[in-house]
Amino acid sequence: MNIDRSRVLLILSRDILDQARVIAGKATIALKLPVSLQIVLRALLEEGLKRDGQAVFLARIESHANAVRDTRIMARRVRAGGPPAISRRGNSGRARP
């Protein structure tokens, strides 16, 4: 994820938001990670509405979900006074035992 951030207001139809919510729910179940509507919308913007394959799209969502989760975990640890953990993720994005 980029450190450089900008705020954007999106005005979308209810149908598009409902479709994105369904995708977030399916991604949450498939990835066993919390996937927000914001994560799904970011992935859709990056990949475009005409994507070649579902696997690429799901990989993008997983990437965003893992980045958000890692950021939140590190922020909690810093607030608790503990050292930030070193990521043990390989190329697959899955945690190693």
The biggest sheet amounts to: none
Our estimate of the beta-strand percent is under 5%
Global shape = globular
| Rg, Cα atoms, Å | 15 Å
| Head-to-tail CA distance between termini | 25 Å
> How does the helix and strand content classify structurally?
mainly alpha
How many DSSP helices?
3
Assign a percent range to the helix content. Answer: 55-70%
The stretches of 5 or more residues where confidence is low (pLDDT under 50) are: none
- Calculate the mean pLDDT score and round it: 80
Q: How is this fold's topology laid out?
A:
Layout: H1 14-31, H2 37-47, H3 54-80
Helix pairs in contact: 1-2, 2-3
Your description of this structure?
With 97 residues, this protein is mainly alpha-helical. The chain has a domain of 67 residues. The protein has 3 helices and no strands. The longest helix is centred in the last third of the chain and has 27 residues. It is globular. The two termini are 25 Å apart. The mean pLDDT is 80.
Characterize this entry briefly.
With 97 residues, the chain is mainly alpha-helical. 58% of the residues lie in helices and 0% in strands.
List the defining traits of the structure above.
globular, 97 residues, mainly alpha
